[in-house]
Amino acid sequence: MELQIGARTEGTVTVIDVAGEIDLYTAPRLEEALTRGAAGAPPLLVVNLSKTTYMDSTALRVLTAALKRIHERDGTLALVSTQSKIGKLFTITGLDQVFPIYSTEPEAIEKARAHGSRQP
What is the average pLDDT score of the chain? Predict the structure, then answer.
């Protein structure tokens, strides 16, 4: 399945919708979307992986690098994951301890908004 990426805003939170496979060849498109989505101050991002069918280590590298850049700017990046094989990838790599991962988009958006409201 070809990678499809969309971006939208929910108030102060940018939601990146990702559908399809993220691998060595498609990860640069995700990286570009995350960079554009992190333009706010502070950047409040939710990446919805509900329709993501496959991720490799390149995708994890892109997400981890984005998380680091966003944290450096006092922002947050939350993930939505409902696919068991995607969740398992985060668990096996230990990244489930690094990324806030939610089972619903509204919950992830609310947590991101709460982070933004704590900023001075």
Answer: 94
Enter the DSSP assignment of 98. Answer: T
Residue 46: count other Cβ atoms within 10 Å of its Cβ: 27
Distance CA 27, CA 43 (A): 20
With the C-alpha atoms ordered 33, 106, 111, 91, is the resulting torsion angle positive or negative?
negative
Task: For residues 73 and 109, give the distance between their C-alpha atoms in angstroms, rounded to a whole number.
Answer: 18
pLDDT in tens, 13-27: 999 999 999 999 999
- CATH of region 1-78: 3.30.750.24
Q: Among 109, 92, 34, which residue's Cα sits nearest to residue 100?
A: 109
Q: What residue ranges do the domains of the chain occupy?
A: 1-78
Nearest to 32 by CA among 50, 56, 5, 58: 5
- In angstroms, the CA 116 to CA 83 distance is 27
